[in-house]
Amino acid sequence: MSNETSLRELLVRSLDWDSAHIRFEEATKDFPSELRGQRPAGAPHTPWQLLEHLRITLWDILEFSRDAKHVSPEFPAGYWPASDTPADDATWDQSIVQYRNDLQALAELTMDPSVDLYTPISHGSGQTILREVLLTLDHNAYHLGQFMFVRKSLGA
Predict the structure, then answer these.
(1) What is the maximum alpha-carbon separation in the chain?
(2) Cα dist from 97 to 39, 47, 104, 145, whole Å
(3) Are the C-beta atoms of 18 and 139 separated by less than 8 Å?
(4) Mean pLDDT for the stretch of residues 46-70
(5) For all residues of the chain together, what is the average pLDDT?
(6) Nearest alpha-carbon partner for 28 in 11, 15, 47, 2
(7) What confidence score (pLDDT) does residue 64 get?
(8) Rg (CA), the chain
(9) For residues 40 and 23, is the Cβ–Cβ distance under 8 A?
(10) Among 4, 7, 5, 14, which residue's Cα sits nearest to residue 135?
(11) Contact 152/52 with Cβ under 8 angstroms?
(12) Is the pLDDT of residue 1 over 80?
């Protein structure tokens, strides 16, 4: 196996690993509906806000990485939901499904041997696919940690 293939496989495994970080599936599994819009004392965000922020940011990174016509949301407001609470259970569930789908698409992009991990993205300002995957890893680890803090603080 080449070093390039090994790196790609490590990156993909790391997108949803459970070695030193909580997996997205475990963090969001069976989250009580009545707590999704609750903000524990001292916490800056509700579970819904964190879930949507993870989804929106992942979507933006993915689309930036593969579509020169993509327009990112306004920063920072466009990366957070307007509401503290999802409209309903279906909205929560759809956010989870979209996150999973986009994570899978980023994994597929990362594994595509025709995609150069190191060459700057033509429509970017120096970003590479490798940098975008590492950004996703870092961002997800941070906010899934926050999500788990909020979950535990709410007793969920």
Answers:
(1) 50
(2) 23, 16, 11, 20
(3) no
(4) 97
(5) 95
(6) 47
(7) 98
(8) 16
(9) no
(10) 14
(11) no
(12) no
Quote the pTM value.
0.94
- Whose tokens are 């979950």? That residue is 151
Secondary structure (3-state) at 36: coil
Distance separating alpha carbons of residues 70 and 65, to the nearest angstrom: 9
If one compares 68 and 21, the residue with the highest pLDDT of the two is 68
Q: Which of 54, 73, 63 is nearest to 109 (CA)?
A: 63
Structure confidence by residue, pLDDT tens digits, 70-99: 999 999 999 999 999 999 999 999 999 999
Which pLDDT belongs to residue 16?
A: 85
Residue 19 has pLDDT above 80, yes or no: no
- Angstrom CA distances, 134 to 45, 127, 146, stand at 24, 11, 19
**Burial readout 56-93 (b: 16 or more C-beta within 10 A, e: otherwise):** bbbbbbbebbbeeeeeeeeeeeebebeeebbeeeeebe
Amino acid at 118: Y
Query: Which pair of tokens denotes residue 117?
Result: 């991990």
Mean pLDDT for 104-115 is 97
